[in-house]
Structure formats: structure tokens, C-alpha cells
Amino acid sequence: MEKKLKVGVLGATGMVGQRFVSLLEDHPWFEVAAVAASPNSAGKTYEEAVSGRWKMDTPIPEAVKDMRVHSVLEVENVCRDVDFVFSAVDMSKDEIRSIEERYAKCETPVVSNNSAHRWTADVPMVIPEINPEHIAIIESQKKRLGTKRGFIAVKPNCSIQSYTPVLTAWKEFVPTQAVVTTYQAISGAGKTFKDWPEMKGNVIPFISGEEEKSEIEPLKIWGHIENDRIVRAQSPVISSQCIRVPVLYGHTAAVFVNFAGDRKPDRDLLIEKMEAFSGLPQELKLPSAPKQFIRYMREDNRPQVLADVDYEHGMGISIGRLREDSIFDYKFVGLSHNTIRGAAGGAVLCAELLTARGYID
Fold it and tell me: What is the homologous superfamily of the domain 5-157+343-356 according to CATH?
């Protein structure tokens, strides 16, 4: 790319916003040109706005430190400086839907980490390796919004990343049922142990709204476009429990799966299909695409959060302990990085796909 695209980050002072700023520091296609947050942060430098609450392991990027923070409500001012925006705002769902549509109607594409538009029928919810064809619905969305260039695309929930790709890799064997329990890091709530000391040594068996997302969002990803809307798939049927655990980064999933028919697929063949699974990001060699999307780990005690969460710079999925089950056909354990692949990194990869396909220019 001859000239980098100028990017705005909405909600830039929060944990996911900080992750966006960090990931974009040396990006070959994109550069941060504007940061926006709540009106309370407006007018401060970015360094001042995140003072005492910078949550990344790396320092604040030098190119962003002295940028003045916009209010996210100053839509026209932000749009004037950027080619598109990433959205990670902390507002109510109704407010998020409204503000993201305002940016889109200002002819600025929005790539969102938020859940507010995930069930808008003409908004693509994309894991680029799985359903890149869904971005075609953007043309229908533009007609509804009355825009030529502006649109909204979203990435799905962080907790589904550690099992949805695996079930997709096994599509030819027709998974019919899955029972999933996710053990989710505190950064998924935008927290560190400093912010949330009561999570040390603790487990909370409830995360608001998470189980519904875990059961239904994969069905939209596996769905199809019909009459200007994305129609969700009917199977596999997923039952989910979501548990908060004392881990900083990394969502682990314990998954049980049944396949159609009386004959179980061969275990070695299932592993082969996982390891060979790739998609359009790998074909196009997009900058953030992992070379190997899913790796299978043969050690009995892997994957582990501390050892494996950063696989492929946090953009790959680690799977282990695939074995036959006494009730279901098979069971396995999956691990994904919740703020990289599951949040900001997944959105960056979506933006790369949209750029490669001409939707962002």
C-alpha cells in the first residue's frame, strides 16, 4: 500500500481502545490519526487521558501520546481527519447503535468491537477466515443508510473464538450439538487485577449476556445472505456456560460435540482438518493473519494460558485434549487471546479484509 489509511479509534482510552492503539503502532496499512473518548477526556492529550490507567504491557506509542482526544460525540470533527474508525466505545447499546450509524452516515466506515449491531440484519459479523463472503451485505446496508462509502461491520464475541473455528473446520462431518463452558479472563470485562482485586483466587459463575452470545452468534457467522439480510444457520445447537476466572488474558473453552450419523469421524482426521484449516486472510497474506490459524497441541497439559495465549502474536487458536467422550462423540479444550484475536486484533483483521476487498479506501 503506497499510502497508509488514516484511522480513528472511538473509545480509545478503554482497555480495548488501548489495545487498538498498541496494535496499530507499526501497522503497514493503517496509522492512528484521531483518538476519541467520552466528553470527560475531550481536550486532554492521549497521555493525560490514560494517565494512571494505561493497561497494556508496552508503553503508550509515541505517535499517539500528544494527540488531543476528541469527544466521540463530535462526529464530523473526527470524520474529517480519518478514512475509517474502529469502535470500542463504552455506552449503552442504544447509544452505541446511534453513534455508530452517525459515523457511517458521515461516510466513514465503522469496524466495531461492540455487540450493539451484531444482530442488525444487514451488518456483517465476521471472523475473516470463516465467513468473508458476508461482507457483500454491506451494499444492502449502504442502501438502507443512504450512504456511498459509510457502513458498519462488526467482529463477534471474544468467547466464541476458541471453538467456532474448530467446528467450522469440521463442517463436512456435520456437527449437530455442542456443549461449551468458557473460562474467561478478567480483561474481557476491561479489568486488571489492580482494578478488580476481589477476582484474585476467585471464580464467578455468571457473565451478563455472555451465554446468549456464545450460543447464538456462531449461527449468524455460519448463516447465509438472503433478501438483503443475513439469515442465521439452524445448527449445530450450542449450550453454553460462561465463567469468570482469575486470569488476565486468555479465554479457555471446554467443548463437547456430537456429529450427524452413527459413525464417529476418525480422531486423526479431525486433527488434520483443524491444522489444515485456513481462509481468505491467509490466501491474501493480510498483515495480521496468522500463518497457521489453528494448531493442535499433543501434550496432555496443553494449551495453557501462560504458555500459549500469545500464539501467532495472539491471533491464532490453540487446541488440545481431543478425545472420545462417554456421552458425546468427542471433547476438546480451546484457547484464544480475548483482547487480540477476540477483540482489537480480530477487528484489525476485519479492516484489512475490507480494505483488500475495496470497501475501505
Answer: NAD(P)-binding Rossmann-like Domain (3.40.50.720)
